[in-house]
Predict the structure.
Amino acid sequence: MFWDQAIETAGRAGLERLQLQRLQATVRRVAERVPFYRQKFADLGVKPDDIRSLADLRRLPFTTSDDLRVNYPAGLLAAPLNDTLRLHTSSGTTGKPKAIFFSRADVENAAELCARSFVMTGVTKEDVFQNMMSYGLFTGALATHYGAEKIGCLVIPAGPGNSERQLMLMRDFRTTLVHLTPSYALYLADFLEKRGVNPRRDLALRKAFVGAEPYTEETRLKIEAGLGLDVYNSYGLSEMNGPGVAFECEHKQGMHLWEDHFIIEIINPQTGDPVANGEPGELVMTTLCREAMPLLRYRTRDITSLMLGRCPCGRTHHRLNRITGRSDDMLIVRGVNIYPQQIERVLMATRGIGRNYLIRLEGLDEMIVYVELTGADFDGQVEHLVSLQSQIAEKLRAEILVKPRVELVPPATLPVTDGKARRVIDNRKL
Ligand code: AMP
Ligand code: ZN
Protein backbone atom coordinates (compact mmCIF):
# COMPACT_ATOMS: atom_id res chain seq x y z
CA MET A 1 0.00 0.00 0.00
CA PHE A 2 1.19 3.48 -0.84
CA TRP A 3 0.38 6.91 0.53
CA ASP A 4 2.04 8.77 -2.35
CA GLN A 5 3.01 6.15 -4.90
CA ALA A 6 4.56 8.55 -7.41
CA ILE A 7 7.13 9.88 -4.97
CA GLU A 8 7.69 6.61 -3.10
CA THR A 9 8.56 4.74 -6.31
CA ALA A 10 10.14 7.65 -8.22
CA GLY A 11 13.06 6.71 -10.49
CA ARG A 12 16.45 7.54 -9.00
CA ALA A 13 17.28 10.12 -11.66
CA GLY A 14 14.09 12.07 -10.98
CA LEU A 15 14.53 11.76 -7.24
CA GLU A 16 18.07 13.09 -7.46
CA ARG A 17 16.98 16.01 -9.66
CA LEU A 18 14.41 16.90 -7.03
CA GLN A 19 17.04 16.59 -4.29
CA LEU A 20 19.39 18.95 -6.12
CA GLN A 21 16.70 21.60 -6.63
CA ARG A 22 15.69 21.41 -2.99
CA LEU A 23 19.29 21.41 -1.79
CA GLN A 24 20.03 24.55 -3.82
CA ALA A 25 16.97 26.28 -2.37
CA THR A 26 17.93 25.22 1.17
CA VAL A 27 21.49 26.47 0.78
CA ARG A 28 20.25 29.82 -0.55
CA ARG A 29 17.79 30.08 2.32
CA VAL A 30 20.35 29.53 5.07
CA ALA A 31 22.92 31.76 3.35
CA GLU A 32 20.39 34.59 3.36
CA ARG A 33 18.88 34.03 6.78
CA VAL A 34 21.21 32.23 9.18
CA PRO A 35 24.36 34.10 10.25
CA PHE A 36 25.88 30.84 11.56
CA TYR A 37 25.81 29.29 8.06
CA ARG A 38 26.82 32.55 6.36
CA GLN A 39 29.94 32.57 8.50
CA LYS A 40 30.66 28.89 7.84
CA PHE A 41 30.28 29.43 4.06
CA ALA A 42 32.66 32.39 4.26
CA ASP A 43 35.23 30.33 6.20
CA LEU A 44 35.07 27.58 3.57
CA GLY A 45 34.95 30.00 0.62
CA VAL A 46 31.74 28.47 -0.71
CA LYS A 47 28.76 30.31 -2.19
CA PRO A 48 25.24 29.02 -2.89
CA ASP A 49 25.90 29.16 -6.66
CA ASP A 50 28.78 26.70 -6.23
CA ILE A 51 26.29 23.90 -5.51
CA ARG A 52 25.68 22.61 -9.04
CA SER A 53 25.41 18.89 -8.45
CA LEU A 54 24.71 16.56 -5.53
CA ALA A 55 28.44 15.82 -5.40
CA ASP A 56 28.95 19.47 -4.37
CA LEU A 57 27.23 18.63 -1.09
CA ARG A 58 30.66 17.70 0.22
CA ARG A 59 31.75 21.32 -0.12
CA LEU A 60 29.23 22.32 2.54
CA PRO A 61 30.01 22.38 6.26
CA PHE A 62 28.88 19.76 8.73
CA THR A 63 26.48 20.80 11.50
CA THR A 64 26.88 19.17 14.91
CA SER A 65 24.69 18.89 17.97
CA ASP A 66 27.15 21.26 19.67
CA ASP A 67 26.36 23.86 17.02
CA LEU A 68 22.71 23.53 18.04
CA ARG A 69 23.56 23.94 21.71
CA VAL A 70 25.84 26.93 21.14
CA ASN A 71 23.13 28.60 19.04
CA TYR A 72 20.41 27.89 21.63
CA PRO A 73 17.72 29.12 21.77
CA ALA A 74 17.02 30.60 18.33
CA GLY A 75 20.35 31.18 16.56
CA LEU A 76 19.68 28.71 13.76
CA LEU A 77 16.21 29.97 12.95
CA ALA A 78 15.69 30.60 9.23
CA ALA A 79 12.20 32.08 9.56
CA PRO A 80 10.80 34.96 11.59
CA LEU A 81 9.94 33.72 15.06
CA ASN A 82 6.30 34.74 14.63
CA ASP A 83 6.04 32.50 11.55
CA THR A 84 6.95 29.43 13.55
CA LEU A 85 4.18 27.30 14.99
CA ARG A 86 5.79 24.90 17.35
CA LEU A 87 8.85 24.34 19.50
CA HIS A 88 10.22 20.96 20.49
CA THR A 89 13.39 20.16 22.30
CA SER A 90 15.56 17.13 21.96
CA SER A 91 16.00 14.86 24.94
CA GLY A 92 19.41 16.09 25.97
CA THR A 93 20.80 14.32 29.01
CA THR A 94 22.88 17.21 30.32
CA GLY A 95 22.85 20.98 30.09
CA LYS A 96 20.68 22.92 27.70
CA PRO A 97 18.54 20.94 25.29
CA LYS A 98 18.52 21.50 21.54
CA ALA A 99 15.64 23.75 20.50
CA ILE A 100 13.87 22.73 17.29
CA PHE A 101 11.40 25.07 15.59
CA PHE A 102 8.67 24.11 13.15
CA SER A 103 6.91 26.33 10.61
CA ARG A 104 3.41 25.48 9.42
CA ALA A 105 4.89 23.59 6.47
CA ASP A 106 7.30 21.73 8.78
CA VAL A 107 4.44 20.59 11.03
CA GLU A 108 2.51 19.48 7.95
CA ASN A 109 5.51 17.64 6.45
CA ALA A 110 6.24 15.82 9.69
CA ALA A 111 2.67 14.49 9.79
CA GLU A 112 2.77 13.68 6.08
CA LEU A 113 5.93 11.58 6.43
CA CYS A 114 4.44 9.73 9.38
CA ALA A 115 1.27 9.00 7.39
CA ARG A 116 3.39 7.78 4.48
CA SER A 117 5.44 5.57 6.79
CA PHE A 118 2.41 4.09 8.54
CA VAL A 119 0.61 3.25 5.30
CA MET A 120 3.81 1.57 4.09
CA THR A 121 3.36 -0.98 6.89
CA GLY A 122 -0.27 -1.62 5.96
CA VAL A 123 -2.06 0.80 8.30
CA THR A 124 -5.55 1.86 7.17
CA LYS A 125 -8.28 4.09 8.54
CA GLU A 126 -9.74 1.02 10.24
CA ASP A 127 -6.80 0.94 12.65
CA VAL A 128 -7.10 2.11 16.25
CA PHE A 129 -3.83 3.76 17.20
CA GLN A 130 -2.81 3.91 20.86
CA ASN A 131 0.14 6.24 21.03
CA MET A 132 2.32 5.32 24.02
CA MET A 133 5.07 7.82 23.27
CA SER A 134 5.56 10.76 25.54
CA TYR A 135 3.48 13.82 24.61
CA GLY A 136 5.31 17.04 25.31
CA LEU A 137 8.59 18.58 24.31
CA PHE A 138 9.74 15.26 22.84
CA THR A 139 8.82 15.03 19.13
CA GLY A 140 7.92 11.32 19.27
CA ALA A 141 4.21 11.57 19.94
CA LEU A 142 2.79 14.59 18.15
CA ALA A 143 3.99 13.94 14.60
CA THR A 144 2.78 10.35 14.69
CA HIS A 145 -0.48 11.47 16.26
CA TYR A 146 -1.21 13.86 13.41
CA GLY A 147 0.09 11.38 10.84
CA ALA A 148 -2.37 8.72 12.01
CA GLU A 149 -5.21 11.26 12.02
CA LYS A 150 -4.40 12.11 8.41
CA ILE A 151 -4.97 8.46 7.51
CA GLY A 152 -8.22 8.52 9.46
CA CYS A 153 -7.29 6.15 12.31
CA LEU A 154 -8.93 6.54 15.67
CA VAL A 155 -6.08 7.96 17.74
CA ILE A 156 -5.80 7.41 21.49
CA PRO A 157 -3.18 9.80 22.94
CA ALA A 158 -2.36 7.54 25.87
CA GLY A 159 1.23 8.60 26.47
CA PRO A 160 3.66 6.19 28.15
CA GLY A 161 3.40 4.30 31.42
CA ASN A 162 0.35 3.46 33.55
CA SER A 163 0.13 -0.05 32.13
CA GLU A 164 -3.14 -0.78 33.89
CA ARG A 165 -4.82 2.04 32.01
CA GLN A 166 -3.07 1.06 28.75
CA LEU A 167 -4.55 -2.41 29.10
CA MET A 168 -8.02 -1.03 29.76
CA LEU A 169 -7.81 1.19 26.67
CA MET A 170 -6.47 -1.64 24.52
CA ARG A 171 -9.33 -3.86 25.62
CA ASP A 172 -12.18 -1.37 25.53
CA PHE A 173 -11.31 0.26 22.20
CA ARG A 174 -9.86 -2.80 20.46
CA THR A 175 -6.52 -1.11 19.81
CA THR A 176 -4.76 -2.55 16.74
CA LEU A 177 -1.68 -0.39 16.58
CA VAL A 178 0.72 0.90 19.24
CA HIS A 179 3.76 3.18 19.13
CA LEU A 180 6.26 2.86 21.95
CA THR A 181 9.90 2.58 22.94
CA PRO A 182 11.52 -0.87 23.01
CA SER A 183 12.07 -0.62 26.75
CA TYR A 184 8.43 0.15 27.45
CA ALA A 185 7.33 -2.56 25.00
CA LEU A 186 9.32 -5.14 26.97
CA TYR A 187 7.92 -3.84 30.22
CA LEU A 188 4.37 -3.95 28.89
CA ALA A 189 4.89 -7.52 27.69
CA ASP A 190 5.94 -8.46 31.22
CA PHE A 191 2.94 -6.68 32.64
CA LEU A 192 0.51 -8.53 30.37
CA GLU A 193 2.11 -11.83 31.24
CA LYS A 194 1.80 -11.09 34.96
CA ARG A 195 -1.83 -10.16 34.54
CA GLY A 196 -2.47 -13.41 32.68
CA VAL A 197 -3.42 -11.56 29.49
CA ASN A 198 -2.68 -13.49 26.32
CA PRO A 199 -2.52 -10.70 23.73
CA ARG A 200 -3.28 -12.94 20.76
CA ARG A 201 -6.39 -14.25 22.46
CA ASP A 202 -7.55 -11.27 24.49
CA LEU A 203 -6.50 -8.19 22.51
CA ALA A 204 -6.79 -6.97 18.92
CA LEU A 205 -3.17 -5.79 18.51
CA ARG A 206 -1.67 -6.16 15.02
CA LYS A 207 1.34 -3.89 14.80
CA ALA A 208 3.75 -1.89 16.92
CA PHE A 209 5.98 0.94 15.79
CA VAL A 210 9.04 0.73 17.93
CA GLY A 211 11.79 3.31 17.99
CA ALA A 212 13.40 6.28 19.75
CA GLU A 213 16.10 4.01 21.20
CA PRO A 214 18.45 1.50 19.65
CA TYR A 215 17.40 -2.13 19.98
CA THR A 216 18.43 -5.42 18.50
CA GLU A 217 16.73 -7.97 16.26
CA GLU A 218 16.54 -10.27 19.30
CA THR A 219 14.58 -7.59 21.17
CA ARG A 220 12.21 -7.24 18.23
CA LEU A 221 11.47 -10.97 18.45
CA LYS A 222 10.86 -10.75 22.20
CA ILE A 223 8.45 -7.85 21.76
CA GLU A 224 6.64 -9.63 18.92
CA ALA A 225 6.22 -12.74 21.02
CA GLY A 226 5.29 -10.85 24.19
CA LEU A 227 2.72 -8.52 22.65
CA GLY A 228 1.52 -10.85 19.90
CA LEU A 229 2.02 -8.46 16.99
CA ASP A 230 4.41 -7.37 14.21
CA VAL A 231 7.09 -4.86 15.17
CA TYR A 232 8.21 -2.25 12.64
CA ASN A 233 11.37 -0.29 13.29
CA SER A 234 10.82 3.46 13.27
CA TYR A 235 13.72 5.91 13.18
CA GLY A 236 13.71 9.63 13.60
CA LEU A 237 15.28 12.47 15.50
CA SER A 238 14.05 15.87 16.55
CA GLU A 239 16.57 17.67 14.37
CA MET A 240 14.97 16.04 11.29
CA ASN A 241 11.27 16.56 12.28
CA GLY A 242 11.08 13.68 14.75
CA PRO A 243 9.67 10.29 13.77
CA GLY A 244 8.92 9.31 10.16
CA VAL A 245 12.44 9.91 8.85
CA ALA A 246 13.05 6.24 8.11
CA PHE A 247 10.65 3.35 8.57
CA GLU A 248 10.42 -0.31 7.71
CA CYS A 249 8.00 -1.43 5.01
CA GLU A 250 6.04 -4.69 5.14
CA HIS A 251 9.18 -6.66 4.28
CA LYS A 252 10.90 -5.51 7.49
CA GLN A 253 14.31 -5.52 5.83
CA GLY A 254 15.86 -2.15 6.48
CA MET A 255 14.18 1.24 6.89
CA HIS A 256 13.35 3.35 3.83
CA LEU A 257 14.68 6.84 4.45
CA TRP A 258 12.53 9.45 2.70
CA GLU A 259 14.99 10.93 0.26
CA ASP A 260 12.68 13.59 -1.14
CA HIS A 261 13.02 15.22 2.32
CA PHE A 262 16.55 14.30 3.36
CA ILE A 263 19.91 13.60 1.73
CA ILE A 264 21.77 10.70 3.33
CA GLU A 265 25.51 10.39 3.74
CA ILE A 266 27.31 7.68 5.71
CA ILE A 267 30.72 8.84 6.86
CA ASN A 268 33.67 7.64 8.87
CA PRO A 269 33.08 9.51 12.16
CA GLN A 270 36.80 10.04 12.69
CA THR A 271 37.78 11.39 9.26
CA GLY A 272 34.46 12.75 7.97
CA ASP A 273 35.04 10.94 4.65
CA PRO A 274 32.32 8.84 3.03
CA VAL A 275 32.54 5.11 3.73
CA ALA A 276 32.39 2.56 0.90
CA ASN A 277 28.84 1.72 -0.20
CA GLY A 278 27.17 -0.56 2.35
CA GLU A 279 29.87 -0.12 5.01
CA PRO A 280 28.91 1.04 8.51
CA GLY A 281 29.51 4.60 9.60
CA GLU A 282 27.82 7.68 11.02
CA LEU A 283 24.58 8.80 9.43
CA VAL A 284 24.68 12.41 8.24
CA MET A 285 21.55 14.09 6.93
CA THR A 286 20.70 17.30 5.13
CA THR A 287 17.13 18.58 5.32
CA LEU A 288 15.55 19.45 1.98
CA CYS A 289 12.13 20.79 2.98
CA ARG A 290 12.52 22.30 6.41
CA GLU A 291 11.70 26.00 6.54
CA ALA A 292 12.09 27.07 10.16
CA MET A 293 15.36 25.30 10.84
CA PRO A 294 17.07 23.73 7.85
CA LEU A 295 20.21 21.80 8.75
CA LEU A 296 23.09 21.01 6.44
CA ARG A 297 25.02 17.76 6.81
CA TYR A 298 23.81 17.13 10.35
CA ARG A 299 26.00 14.66 12.25
CA THR A 300 23.48 12.34 13.90
CA ARG A 301 26.18 10.22 15.63
CA ASP A 302 23.98 7.23 14.85
CA ILE A 303 25.89 4.28 13.45
CA THR A 304 24.28 2.41 10.58
CA SER A 305 24.88 1.34 6.99
CA LEU A 306 23.03 1.52 3.70
CA MET A 307 21.27 -1.65 2.73
CA LEU A 308 22.15 -2.35 -0.88
CA GLY A 309 19.81 -3.70 -3.52
CA ARG A 310 16.19 -3.06 -4.41
CA CYS A 311 13.40 -3.61 -1.95
CA PRO A 312 10.70 -6.03 -3.13
CA CYS A 313 8.05 -3.43 -2.14
CA GLY A 314 8.98 -1.32 -5.18
CA ARG A 315 10.01 1.78 -3.24
CA THR A 316 13.15 3.40 -4.54
CA HIS A 317 14.22 5.31 -1.43
CA HIS A 318 17.37 3.84 0.06
CA ARG A 319 17.15 1.67 3.14
CA LEU A 320 19.15 1.90 6.35
CA ASN A 321 20.16 -1.10 8.39
CA ARG A 322 19.23 -1.14 12.06
CA ILE A 323 21.02 1.56 14.05
CA THR A 324 23.64 -0.33 16.02
CA GLY A 325 24.34 2.47 18.49
CA ARG A 326 25.68 5.98 18.63
CA SER A 327 29.27 6.87 17.94
CA ASP A 328 29.34 8.38 21.44
CA ASP A 329 27.80 5.26 23.06
CA MET A 330 30.89 3.19 22.70
CA LEU A 331 32.35 2.06 26.00
CA ILE A 332 36.01 1.33 26.37
CA VAL A 333 36.47 -1.29 29.06
CA ARG A 334 39.94 -2.66 29.72
CA GLY A 335 40.99 -1.32 26.35
CA VAL A 336 38.22 -3.10 24.45
CA ASN A 337 35.58 -1.21 22.45
CA ILE A 338 32.11 -2.33 23.44
CA TYR A 339 28.67 -1.22 22.29
CA PRO A 340 25.79 -1.74 24.74
CA GLN A 341 23.87 -3.30 21.84
CA GLN A 342 26.24 -6.26 21.84
CA ILE A 343 25.31 -6.97 25.44
CA GLU A 344 21.62 -6.56 24.72
CA ARG A 345 21.82 -9.03 21.83
CA VAL A 346 23.27 -11.71 24.10
CA LEU A 347 20.77 -11.09 26.91
CA MET A 348 17.73 -11.06 24.66
CA ALA A 349 18.77 -14.32 23.04
CA THR A 350 19.22 -16.05 26.42
CA ARG A 351 16.25 -18.13 27.46
CA GLY A 352 14.85 -17.91 30.93
CA ILE A 353 15.64 -14.32 31.88
CA GLY A 354 13.46 -11.26 32.05
CA ARG A 355 13.42 -8.29 29.75
CA ASN A 356 15.15 -5.47 31.58
CA TYR A 357 18.87 -4.99 32.11
CA LEU A 358 21.41 -2.38 33.20
CA ILE A 359 25.15 -2.03 32.67
CA ARG A 360 27.17 -0.39 35.42
CA LEU A 361 30.83 0.51 35.24
CA GLU A 362 32.67 1.02 38.50
CA GLY A 363 36.11 1.72 39.90
CA LEU A 364 38.87 1.11 37.46
CA ASP A 365 37.00 -0.69 34.70
CA GLU A 366 34.82 -3.16 36.48
CA MET A 367 31.70 -4.04 34.51
CA ILE A 368 28.56 -5.30 36.21
CA VAL A 369 25.57 -6.40 34.18
CA TYR A 370 22.29 -6.51 36.10
CA VAL A 371 19.74 -8.85 34.61
CA GLU A 372 16.14 -9.12 35.73
CA LEU A 373 14.75 -12.58 36.29
CA THR A 374 11.26 -13.60 35.33
CA GLY A 375 8.82 -14.57 38.09
CA ALA A 376 9.35 -18.27 37.35
CA ASP A 377 13.14 -18.08 37.59
CA PHE A 378 13.06 -16.01 40.70
CA ASP A 379 11.35 -18.83 42.50
CA GLY A 380 13.89 -21.32 41.12
CA GLN A 381 16.67 -23.27 42.80
CA VAL A 382 19.81 -21.47 43.88
CA GLU A 383 22.00 -23.90 41.89
CA HIS A 384 20.00 -23.12 38.79
CA LEU A 385 20.57 -19.39 39.33
CA VAL A 386 24.30 -19.83 39.81
CA SER A 387 24.56 -21.76 36.58
CA LEU A 388 22.44 -19.19 34.73
CA GLN A 389 24.69 -16.45 36.02
CA SER A 390 27.88 -18.09 34.82
CA GLN A 391 26.29 -19.06 31.52
CA ILE A 392 25.41 -15.40 30.84
CA ALA A 393 28.86 -14.21 31.90
CA GLU A 394 30.50 -16.71 29.53
CA LYS A 395 28.29 -15.76 26.61
CA LEU A 396 29.05 -12.11 27.20
CA ARG A 397 32.76 -12.78 27.31
CA ALA A 398 32.54 -14.54 23.95
CA GLU A 399 30.74 -11.52 22.47
CA ILE A 400 32.54 -8.55 24.04
CA LEU A 401 35.87 -10.13 25.05
CA VAL A 402 35.51 -8.85 28.61
CA LYS A 403 33.97 -11.01 31.30
CA PRO A 404 31.60 -8.89 33.37
CA ARG A 405 30.15 -9.71 36.77
CA VAL A 406 26.55 -10.75 36.25
CA GLU A 407 23.99 -9.94 38.95
CA LEU A 408 20.58 -11.56 38.74
CA VAL A 409 17.93 -9.35 40.33
CA PRO A 410 14.25 -9.96 41.15
CA PRO A 411 11.62 -9.18 38.51
CA ALA A 412 10.61 -5.54 38.03
CA THR A 413 13.35 -4.11 40.24
CA LEU A 414 15.49 -2.29 37.66
CA PRO A 415 14.46 1.29 36.90
CA VAL A 416 12.02 1.97 34.08
CA THR A 417 11.42 5.44 32.71
CA ASP A 418 8.61 7.01 30.75
CA GLY A 419 11.14 8.34 28.30
CA LYS A 420 14.25 6.78 26.89
CA ALA A 421 15.85 3.94 28.79
CA ARG A 422 19.18 4.59 30.46
CA ARG A 423 21.10 1.36 29.96
CA VAL A 424 24.57 2.39 31.06
CA ILE A 425 25.75 4.00 34.28
CA ASP A 426 29.41 4.87 34.17
CA ASN A 427 30.81 5.61 37.63
CA ARG A 428 34.42 4.97 36.72
CA LYS A 429 37.09 7.33 37.88
CA LEU A 430 39.26 7.29 34.80
P1 AMP B 1 15.28 12.51 19.84
O1 AMP B 1 15.77 13.61 18.98
O2 AMP B 1 15.24 12.86 21.27
O3 AMP B 1 14.02 11.95 19.31
O4 AMP B 1 16.36 11.35 19.75
C1 AMP B 1 16.76 10.84 18.49
C2 AMP B 1 17.75 9.72 18.67
O5 AMP B 1 17.09 8.54 19.16
C3 AMP B 1 18.37 9.29 17.38
O6 AMP B 1 19.45 10.12 17.02
C4 AMP B 1 18.83 7.88 17.72
O7 AMP B 1 20.02 7.89 18.45
C5 AMP B 1 17.72 7.38 18.61
N1 AMP B 1 16.73 6.60 17.83
C6 AMP B 1 15.55 7.01 17.36
N2 AMP B 1 14.91 6.00 16.71
C7 AMP B 1 15.73 4.94 16.74
C8 AMP B 1 15.67 3.60 16.22
N3 AMP B 1 14.63 3.14 15.56
N4 AMP B 1 16.74 2.81 16.43
C9 AMP B 1 17.81 3.26 17.10
N5 AMP B 1 17.93 4.49 17.62
C10 AMP B 1 16.90 5.33 17.45
ZN1 ZN C 1 10.42 -1.76 1.04
Notes: The mean pLDDT is 94. The first helix runs from residue 5 to 8. The longest strand covers residues 230-237.
